[in-house]
Amino acid sequence: MRTLLIVGNWKMNKTASEAATFIGELSQHLPKAPLTGVELVVAPPFTALESVGRVLGSESLIQLGAQNLFWEEHGAYTGEVSASMLKDLGCRYVILGHSERRTIFGEQNDGIRKKILAALTQGIRPILCIGESLAQRESGATDTVLTQQLQETLSGLSPDFVATIAIAYEPIWAIGTGKAATIDQAVAAHRTIRQFLTSAWSSTVADTTRILYGGSVTPQNIESLLASDQIDGALIGGACLQVDSFATIARLTSTTRSIGV
Ligand code: 13P
């Protein structure tokens, strides 16, 4: 049984004080009791992690995530933040390898792999982002691209570690464009990812690992995406920045389908 996972990636939005206000309002819009079968995560910018963590407190239904980290523990790495620093602020998850990090900041699979290991060492669960560009999709290279990204970031990891990672399939052409992948496209990519997990580790690892979809997810399309038992949740950008839409997505996720493999 896989618990659904809904993650709000705030990207470079909201100051620390705006973030605290937002989380206070979001908590009002969510039911007080845990949402059945759903984990909720917000990933604010580094500068807002402390204020968000303070408003959430230890009892919150919402968990704290970060958007990146650096693989070294400490030292002369100007501008970087380590896994232990995030852990100290209460982060349970970290988004790694987002396509914006890859394309704008030049991140490569070998560095992303080191970041995954650093997170796991601190007990922070990575949300590994992979996905193809439009040109790669149009040339029929989607499966090859996804498999190579998985191979170069995950191979050699112990099965126990891999099963704690969430993999987010985020086609680059669907991010921020309002053009989400079709259900068939998303399901096909998720099957490719599960096949890789089965062949690199085992069907148990493939059945345990959560695979999220990301790219123009909204309250309007979340239910149809989650109608497939291949899709174990969503990584959300734009729609997580409004209280109403994020709360609606969270609520719909808890009622959309019974959880199971
Ligand atoms: P949008 O939901 O704005 O398309 O962003 C998706 C994303 O990049 C989440 O990480």
Written description of the protein model:
- This protein has 12 helices and 8 strands.
- It has 261 residues and is α/β, with parallel strands linked by helices.
- It has a single domain, classed as TIM Barrel.
- It has an 8-stranded parallel beta barrel, surrounded by 5 helices.
- β7, α11 and β8 form a beta-alpha-beta unit.
- The longest helix is centred in the last third of the chain and has 18 residues.
User: How many domains make up the 3D coordinates?
Assistant: 1
- Specify the helix fraction band: 40-55%
Low-confidence runs: none
Number of strands: 8
Helix and strand sequence: EHEHEHEHHEHHHEHHEHEH
Residue fraction in strands = 15-25%
Number of helices: 12
Look at the structure and give the CATH class: Alpha Beta
Q: What gap, in angstroms, lies between the N and C termini? A: 6 Å
The CATH architecture comes to Alpha-Beta Barrel
The unique ligands bound to this protein are: 1,3-dihydroxyacetonephosphate
Which structural class fits the helix and strand makeup?
Answer: alpha/beta
